[in-house]
Amino acid sequence: MDKLLEITLLYDFYGELLTEKQRSVMELYYLDDLSLHEIAAEHDITRQAVLDMLKRTEKLLNQYEQKLGLVAKYVEQKEKLEKLTDELKGIIKQNGIAVSELDALAEELSHILD
Fold it and tell me: How far apart are the first and last CA of the chain?
């Protein structure tokens, strides 16, 4: 998994377990795309302190995931739903039917993935 995607997923699931300052630094760096220097200036700390906080926070998020496994479960469920949706759409196309109930189910599965 791409590191940025992995970190943002971890943050989405476990961000509320972080301190306010950890959340702020993570959001500024990963969501707002600020540089280490810009974050340091905003928080009145050194660039190295920002880098250290990012590394410690990423490690902490990974520890939460190792213990709880919520992101892994989410990814697994998403993959299963995508496969099921594709299979259902294939059945609909293969049989040349447009049964409204099957279409509705395929559409609902697509919304769950979003």
Answer: 18
Q: Which tens digits make up the pLDDT trace of 60-104?
A: 999 999 999 999 999 998 888 888 878 877 877 777 665 666 667
Torsion on CA atoms 35, 40, 31, 54, rounded to nearest 10: 100
Q: Structural domains in the chain?
A: 3-68 (1.10.10.10), 74-113 (no CATH)
Q: Is the pTM of this model over 0.70?
A: yes
Q: CA-to-CA distance for 44 and 38, rounded, in angstroms?
A: 10
| Contact present, 61 and 11 (Cβ < 8 Å) | yes
Q: Determine whether 5 is exposed, middle or buried from the number of CB atoms within 10 Å of its CB (0-12, 13-18, 19+).
A: exposed
